[in-house]
Amino acid sequence: METVRFSREHVAEAAEIERLCFSEPWSEDSLVMLADGGYGAGVACVEQERLVAYAGMVSVLDEGEIVNVATHPDFRRRGYARAALRELFRIAGERGVTVLTLEVRASNSAARALYESEGFEAVGTRPGFYSHPREDAIIMTRKKED
Q1: Domain containing 99: what range?
Q2: Distance between CA atoms of 85 and 115, rounded to whole angstroms?
Q3: Which residues make Cβ contacts (< 8 Å) with residue 115, sequence separation at least 6?
Q4: What is the largest CA-CA distance in the chain?
Q5: Does residue 80 have an active-site annotation?
Q6: Number of domains in the chain
Q7: pTM, two decimal places
Q8: Residue 14: strand, helix, or coil
Q9: 103, 118, 121, 145: which is the annotated catalytic residue?
């Protein structure tokens, strides 16, 4: 597996992974923001020239929000999401980000376990945040270790 910066060449494959993984997938136009730098940044996990997972964040000053973490269903449980997250942590550090936040479906126990194992803590709930089906989001944060 190779972990690289998310670029425009990954957008179409990422959009397909979005459609496979989420009830409200991001569009290709939305995913471009992760490729263009600026306040967005993304990481791509590639196997034999195929995008198998990616993660993205946006950051302003010392705060970051992880907005996407997705693995193609055929490649789950192989450490790709963890690798993408860890690379995002490195990028966040380069940008001076000290606090990362994300939302996760309350029922997504696998993702919640991954995030907890990577230092995130549940800090609140957004009632009815998700639709299709309607569900609460758990807000999780991770602070930079000193």
Answers
A1: 2-143
A2: 9
A3: 102, 104, 140, 142
A4: 41
A5: no
A6: 1
A7: 0.91
A8: helix
A9: 103
CA atoms within 13 A on the CB side of 90: 12
Question: Of 54, 80, 87, 115, which is the active-site residue?
Answer: 115
Give the C-alpha separation, 26 to 89, whole Å: 22
Whether 2 sits among the annotated catalytic residues: the reply is no
Task: State whether the Cα torsion 108-125-135-56 is positive or negative.
Answer: negative
Q: Which residues contact 146 (CB under 8 A, 6 or more apart)?
A: none
Residue 12 is encoded by which pair of tokens?
A: 């179409």
Tokens of 51: 């995008």
What are the mean pLDDT values of the chain's consecutive 10-residue runs (146 residues total)? Answer: 94 97 92 87 95 96 96 96 96 95 96 97 95 94 83
CATH number at residue 9: 3.40.630.30
